[in-house]
Amino acid sequence: MHAKTLCTAPRNFILSTLLVLVLGDAGSLTAQVIDIPLQGAKNTDGIPAPWELRVKKGKADFAFQEVGGPAGEPALCLRANDSSFSLNRKVSIDVAEFNVLSWSWKVDSLPQPNNNDQVLQILLYFHGGRVLSYVWDIVRPKESTWSESIHLSLSIKVIAAETNTEKGQWRSVVRRVDEDYSTVYGNAVRYLEGIRIQSNSQYSHSIGAGCISTLNFRRNRG
Questions:
Q1: Residue 44: its pLDDT value, please?
Q2: Can you list the positions of beta strands (E) in 29-170?
Q3: N or C, which terminus of the chain has less Cβ within 10 Å?
């Protein structure tokens, strides 16, 4: 891995857009899958566009691996050493239509147990300031849900999508985002406008490390 520290991070973490339809032409109504690629031309910070780096505390330590995933797909590996940072991108996805989100992830090092540090997090930013966060948590039971109040303009609902403490093993996750959203917010899912991949260890002043493979959304009307 290599360390990257953002010196002039803009306040708005979502700065650019790239949407890839892997079945059919871009914008085709017959497309069944939307990939969220982790690879691409890198900027001066070593980050593939359209991803953008945001550092909340400490230094960002990350690496993009072209064939790092469990099936040889690209992966993003993050290492938080008493730090908090994220990779962010803007998207435009109708999650009522592309309602199933899947990815794989693994942990290589876990922060000291506490309620605020999660080694891996995937945050979905919906229209109107609502956020659905899937985390790898080692304190709460799997499928636990709770609220966070980090920013006055955002409502953040969290789901413990994984709690396993086994290190170095890829684990696959499939979520019905529309159903998860309805469960925690009580109404129909809104339009998805941004995605954040994050790692935290600043509260326990310890080290957490792990990797996440390419995310994809697909249709499932069953």
A1: 77
A2: 33-36, 52-57, 60-65, 75-81, 84-93, 100-109, 120-126, 130-136, 145-148, 155-162
A3: C
pLDDT tens string 137-159: 999 999 999 998 776 788 999 99
3-state DSSP call for residue 42? strand
Does residue 33 lie within any of the structural domains? no
22-31, 61-70, 72-81, 91-100: which has the minimum mean pLDDT?
22-31
* CATH classification of the domain holding 123: 2.60.120
Name residue 15's amino acid: L
The per-residue DSSP string of 177-220 comes to HHHHHHHHHSS----EEEEEEEEE-TTTTSEEEEEEE-EEEE--
Sign of CA dihedral 61, 65, 71, 73: positive
- Structural domain includes residue 145: yes
Domain housing 196 = 38-218
Which of 98, 76, 51 is CA-nearest to residue 192?
A: 98
Q: How many residues does the chain have?
A: 222
Q: Write a three-state SS string for 76-115.
A: EEEEEECCEEEEEEEEEECCCCCCEEEEEEEEEECCCCCC
Q: What are phi and psi of 182, to 5 degrees?
A: -65, -35
- Assigned domain for 118 exists: yes
What's at 75, amino acid-wise? A
Q: How many folded domains does the chain comprise?
A: 1
